[in-house]
Design a protein that fits this description.
The chain is mostly beta strands. It has a domain at about 285-425: Jelly Rolls (Sandwich). It is built from two helices and 26 strands. It has helices at about 380-385, 410-415; strands at about 1-5, 10, 20-25, 45-50, 60-65, 80, 100-105, 120-130, 135-140, 150-155, 155-170, 175-180, 180-185, 190-210, 230-235, 240, 245-250, 255-260, 270-275, 280, 300-305, 315-325, 345-350, 365-370, 390-405, 410. The strands form five sheets. Strands 2, 8, 9, 11, 12, 13, 14, 15, 20 and 26 form a ten-stranded antiparallel β-sheet that branches. A hairpin with a 2-residue loop joins strand 11 (about 155-170) and strand 12 (about 175-180). It starts with a strand and ends in a 25-residue tail after the last helix. Mean pLDDT is about 90; it is low at about 1-10 and about 10-15.
């Protein structure tokens, strides 16, 4: 039996790096008043805490759950299982070369029934899951809902970026539906199942091994623009009281384990705290940029950042390139030629990316690893160099970047099975020498 309060769905709220706590209950009085762990909870519930940080963290992130059964109740030991397409760092295949500029066409759908677990395809890994630094990037292909099957990752927080189709995440703390131009954030340790609302579904996942994603510091930008805390939504409490044999899969230190439980684990009747799944509408992201001349760094487009132990250097940045006005005068407007210490994995949600008018298609990905030069192809360079620079709307475009300080290593799937564009490196071969020794400005 599924229970839900009136108006169950999504609620606005704030999280650390976002703001304050949420509280929500599916039955009146299920939340204790004035205490976290009463001697006896109402309705015969069990109090249980889900912690996403150390107890002594400067900004502890945790949520109190009041549930029908404690989550420790399961009917068997954990047994190892194999999900051959899902990999964790360190994962460095000996016969794969990760040094290079790479681009892929969209990974095609298949006729197989693929769930959230069996349809995950790892493209790159970085860092070390055992020491909780770095990340992995994945493509998901999902055509079938999980049936009496549940999952959580002890390794990672997961940032989900849909590109095609609609998914429902039924979590311990409530329900989140996501579609293209939205993202979902699933915390480490949260139990959920994934259902297909409108398929087939394809999208991108950034698996974050390190500190949680938070809003970036805005510095001189101040309180407004970029991503606003009020636009991050958390679910309201919804619970299932079902006695049915179910499977729980756990990702732990890069390995997958399975156990049996005799009920639905989504039995949290009420909860309060600041550690919860979130969704965010990318159309509410307000970009900022130069309004006179010159081209700012792409860090101004950061939606979320997962900090490292080094100030100013991210474990991961999630960066969004969406529609915006281009107004700078006497300025090369697309991304310039560059190489830097960050490795950049990009994905196209829809439309055309301004630095690569051809080849980088919706559903496609590209990787430019740390300290490898990249930038516009000849068509983009010539067009931007000779354009009439009146104010112009960059329209019909939404791409993103998973950017990390660590080198990203290709998997066998990325190098051998995914639709790699073997001729991508050729997009720069026809760039011409223009130097003639004359002192003119242009």
């Amino acid at each position: 039996m599924i229970q839900a309060p009136s108006g169950a769905g999504i609620t606005e709220g704030y999280m650390p790096g976002f703001g304050n706590d949420f509280e929500t209950e599916a039955l009146p009085g299920a939340l204790p008043e004035g205490m976290n762990s009463p001697q006896k909870c109402n309705y015969g519930l069990y109090g249980e805490q889900l912690s996403g940080t150390a107890f002594t963290d400067v900004r502890p992130e945790r949520t109190w759950c009041y549930r029908i059964r404690p989550s420790v109740k399961h009917s068997g030991r954990y047994a190892r299982i194999d999900l051959p397409y899902w990999h964790s760092a360190p994962h460095i295949p000996q016969d794969v070369t990760s040094l290079g500029q790479y681009r892929w066409d969209p990974v095609p759908h298949t006729d197989q029934d693929l769930t959230w677990l069996t349809g995950m395809r790892t493209m790159t890994t970085a860092g070390d899951v055992n020491t909780q630094v770095g990340m992995a990037s994945h493509i998901y292909l999902v055509t079938a809902s999980m049936q009496d099957a549940y999952f959580y990752s002890a390794d990672s927080e997961m940032l989900v970026v849909p590109q095609e189709g609609r998914l429902r995440f039924c979590t311990e703390l409530g329900i989140i539906d996501v579609e293209p131009q939205e993202i979902a954030i699933l915390p480490r340790g949260l139990v959920y199942r994934v259902e297909v609302l409108d398929g087939p579904c394809r999208g991108f996942v950034c698996e974050n091994y390190g500190a949680k994603f938070e809003l970036p510091g805005r510095g001189p930008i101040g309180a407004n623009c970029m991503a606003n805390p009020r636009d991050f939504k958390a679910p309201v409490a919804v619970f299932e009281d079902r006695e049915v044999t179910s499977t729980l899969t756990i990702k732990w230190c890069g390995q997958f384990h399975e156990t049996q439980i005799g009920h639905s684990p989504l039995d949290v009747v009420a909860w309060h705290g600041n550690y919860a799944p979130l969704k965010y509408d990318l159309k509410t992201y307000c970009p900022v940029g130069a309004i006179l001349f010159d081209h700012p760094d792409p860090s101004i487009f950061t939606v979320l950042t997962a900090p490292s132990g080094q100030p100013g250097v991210a474990n991961i940045d999630f960066v969004l390139f969406r529609e915006r006005w281009m107004v700078a005068e006497d300025t090369f407007r697309p991304p310039w030629y560059h190489k830097n210490i960050m490795s950049e994995l990009m994905g196209n949600i829809y439309g055309q990316y301004d630095a690569k008018p051809k080849g980088f298609v919706p559903g496609g990905m590209s990787l430019h690893n740390m300290m490898l030069p990249h930038g516009p192809d000849k068509t983009a360079f010539e067009g931007a160099s000779n354009a009439d620079l009146h104010p112009q709307k960059l329209d019909n475009t939404m791409s993103f970047m998973f950017e990390t300080r660590f080198p990203q290593h290709l998997t066998q799937f990325a190098a051998k099975e995914a639709p790699l564009q073997d001729d991508y490196i050729d997009c720069w071969t026809d760039i011409e020498k223009k130097f003639d020794g004359s002192p003119g400005k242009k």
